[in-house]
Amino acid sequence: MRKVLLSAAITAAMCPSLASAAEDGKWYLNPAIGYMVFDGDRDLDPTAVGIVGAEYKLDQDWGVEARAFYSDAEHYRGNSNLDQEVLGASLDVLRYFGGESKLTPYMAGGIGLVDANPATGAYNAQTQLNAGGGVRYALDDAWSVRTDARYIYGTDNETADGIVSVGISYAFGGSAAAPAPMPAPAPVTGDADADGVEDGVDQCSGTPAGVAVDAKGCALDKDGDGVPNFRDKCPNTPAGRQVDKFGCKFVLKHTESIKLEINFANNSDAIPAAYAAELKKVADFMNKFGSTATVVEGHADSNGAAAYNKQLSQRRADAVRNALIRDYGIAANRLSAVGYGEERPIADNKTSAGRAANRRVIAVVPVEVVE
């Protein structure tokens, strides 16, 4: 009897050709491990159980499954002569709920046979009914995890057993719905450069044939350097960098510079708010030419001791350097600061206007660029 049941279960699990019964069906192979509890009259300890099933999904709501299970149960008092190998098989109907969601609960019920083979020969070839349910959680289109709990009633000897299990399922077969046909693009009229954008909208007429364009008819420019993709030989240029007609960095040809000059109040290293635009101008220039580095020079007038003026001019230079780093994101290793005190006047320290001109921070940022 055990051989008959086992053969039936293996045959059901290994025959996916039956899927032709419904073109939209899907098969699941459902191996699982679990825990089996026996009716008190059996005098058997609860034990582990192995389960294998082949399930055919009729549609999103209904399925049928052939299952087989096996356990090796010991007598509760340790009498090995009364140990039982329990082998069962059933044919079940499953009702799913939740449609196509990832987490799908179901109810299940079916009929089968169980063969328990103790030394006494009791409980052989018992008819069983089962009822229960579980949850399937989809990991992807093929793999899912399934938990299941069944109450098993033996009609011949009025026994009541139970199995809880968890397993991994593999799905295959079934037929996917054919994708809806894409509508043909509407014909474009008045398109002189044949780029798919009508002349009345096309802001870049004369685009070369076959070049990908945006909604305005202009060639795409992935890195935003002003050179379209089809001509860009350096397609990943950092934003804001100067490039040549092929989208690559310039070959250096001549020197260009920008000058920073900030005047300070007497005996102060605070940057006046009026010079914010001056700082931004230098920061923008240094961001545009990423290889530049500069020295920020601080100066003072001749009022006070020379040593103090040197310290004051250094603080002024440091204040400007720190502002460019903190407020405008210039890398610290591209800026240095030095204070010259009253050593390099540009005006007469005998007049108030001359002294004001000498209280300054300057920086010249040179860079070689293409013409």
From TrEMBL:
Quick one: where is this thing mainly located?
Answer: membrane
Q: Cellular component terms, GO, for this chain's entry?
A: cell outer membrane; pore complex
Keyword annotations for this protein, in alphabetical order, are:
Cell outer membrane, Ion transport, Membrane, Porin, Signal, Transmembrane, Transmembrane beta strand, Transport
Pfam family of the protein (one): OMP_b-brl
Superkingdom, natural source: Bacteria
- Where is it localised? Cell outer membrane
Residues covered by the OmpA-like domain = 251-369
Report how it sits in the membrane: Multi-pass membrane protein
According to the record, the signal peptide region is: 1-21
The record's annotation in Gene3D superfamilies points to: 2.40.160.20, OmpA-like domain
GO:BP terms for this protein?
A: cell adhesion; monoatomic ion transport
Q: Does the keyword Transmembrane apply?
A: yes
Under the heading PROSITE patterns, the entry gives: OMPA_2
Q: Which GO terms describe its molecular function?
A: calcium ion binding; porin activity
Recorded hits in InterPro entries, A to Z, give: Bact_OuterMem_StrucFunc, Beta-barrel_OMP, OMP/PagP_B-barrel, OMP_bac, OmpA-like, OmpA-like_sf, Thrombospondin_3-like_rpt, TSP_type-3_rpt
Name of protein: Outer membrane porin F
Q: Which organism is it from?
A: Zhongshania aliphaticivorans
Tell me the lineage of the source organism. Answer: Bacteria, Pseudomonadati, Pseudomonadota, Gammaproteobacteria, Cellvibrionales
